[in-house]
């Protein structure tokens, strides 16, 4: 398994925790110097917080761990393409790069609907690479929503 897949597996483990907790199964990890420094999964329902997406929670934890809001040199691995809020937070955090699993054709803002992370009107831009263990990530989402119906 290559490093991208190893880190995405860690994000998938977080997504599985979300699934077990009745949350939309999205997980995220932040990597710095080849080490996972923060991890999180969706907690919107549990916390009654519309901003408690896996990415936001992982970015907050990484900022606390590093003692800075600027996450330069950090990479985010997330199981689902980031939404507009999360993509904006990634830009504001000055992340180095984002890797994601499944595309989100309805509200993905790394490439599917809009490439917010590459918009030249923002001071910082970051590359996003999708499709890492996408089938596993998509299967978790499909199973979760099938069970809800």
Could you characterize the architecture of this molecule?
The mean pLDDT is 97. It contains 5 helices and 5 strands, in the order αββααβαββα. The chain is an alpha/beta fold. Helices cover 40% and strands 19% of the residues. The chain has a 5-stranded mixed beta sheet with strand order 2-1-3-4-5. The relative contact order is 0.16. It has helices at residues 3-20, 44-47, 54-66, 84-93, 134-148; strands spanning 27-32, 35-41, 74-80, 97-102, 128-129.
The helix fraction, in percent, is 40-55%
> Given the structure, what is the number of helices?
5
Strand pairing plus helix content: what structural class?
Answer: alpha/beta
Mean pLDDT: 97
Strand order of the largest sheet: 2-1-3-4-5
Low-confidence runs of at least 5 consecutive residues: none
* N-to-C order of helices and strands: HEEHHEHEEH
Largest sheet: 5 strands, mixed
Shape assignment: globular
The tally of beta strands, per DSSP, is 5
- Rg, nearest Å: 14 Å
């Amino acid at each position: 398994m290559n490093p991208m897949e190893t880190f995405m597996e860690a994000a998938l483990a977080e997504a599985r925790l979300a699934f077990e907790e009745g949350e939309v199964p999205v997980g995220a990890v932040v990597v710095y110097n080849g080490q996972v420094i923060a991890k999180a999964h969706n907690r919107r329902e549990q916390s009654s917080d519309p901003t408690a997406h896996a990415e936001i929670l992982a970015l907050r934890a990484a900022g606390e761990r590093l003692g800075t809001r600027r996450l330069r040199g950090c990479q985010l691995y997330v199981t689902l393409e980031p939404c507009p809020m999360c993509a904006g937070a990634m830009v504001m955090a000055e992340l180095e790069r984002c890797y994601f699993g499944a595309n989100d054709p309805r509200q993905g803002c790394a490439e599917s609907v809009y490439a917010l992370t590459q918009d030249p009107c923002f001071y910082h831009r970051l590359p996003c690479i999708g499709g890492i263990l996408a089938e596993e990530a998509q299967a978790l989402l499909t199973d979760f929503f099938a069970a809800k119906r």
